[in-house]
Design brief:
Layout lengths: L3 H6 L5 H9 L3 H5 L4 E6 L1 H5 L5 H6 L2 H9 L2 E3 L4 H7 L1 E3 L5 E5 L5 E2 L2 E10 L2 E6 L7
Parallel strand pairs: 1-7
Antiparallel strand pairs: 1-2, 3-4, 4-5, 5-6, 6-7
Length: about 130
């Protein structure tokens, strides 16, 4: 089974995320031993950010890494697990609220595809970049 990074690299919808993970120096982490739960913004999600935001973040790897690690939780948590929990703590350290009442939502993002299995975790594709605060 492919790793989280392998799945992202081999999916056209994640080119911005892959570039951001590379710029932040997180490839080895997300390709390594898990398990991780990744809330993966697709390219459309990054395109919703104000113009120049991604370029600015790529030029500031520590800030970019902080934002990206806010999209990752420790452990292999599927949709049902996340909805039961109602909140998870990111590996960045901040809480991520989960809402499963109407749609399956993670903070300000709707989950477009849930429970994509990888050998070192699980991916949930989201329609917005989630920001701390």
């Amino acid at each position: 089974m492919p790793s989280i990074v392998d799945i992202a690299v081999n999916n056209e919808g994640f080119s911005t995320l892959v570039a951001a993970v590379q710029a932040a120096g997180l490839v080895e982490t997300l390709a390594g031993e898990g398990d991780f739960t990744v809330f993966a913004p697709n390219d459309d999600a990054f395109a919703k950010l104000p113009p120049g935001t991604v370029q600015t973040l790529v030029q500031n790897p520590p800030q970019l890494a902080r934002i990206l690690t806010y999209h990752v939780a420790a452990g292999r948590l599927n949709k049902d697990d996340l909805i039961k929990l109602g909140e998870v703590t990111s590996i960045e350290g901040s809480p991520i609220p989960i809402n499963g009442e109407d749609d399956f939502e993670v903070k300000n993002a709707t989950v477009l595809a849930a429970d994509i299995e990888a050998d070192n975790g699980i991916i949930h594709v989201i329609d917005n970049v989630i920001l701390m605060g």
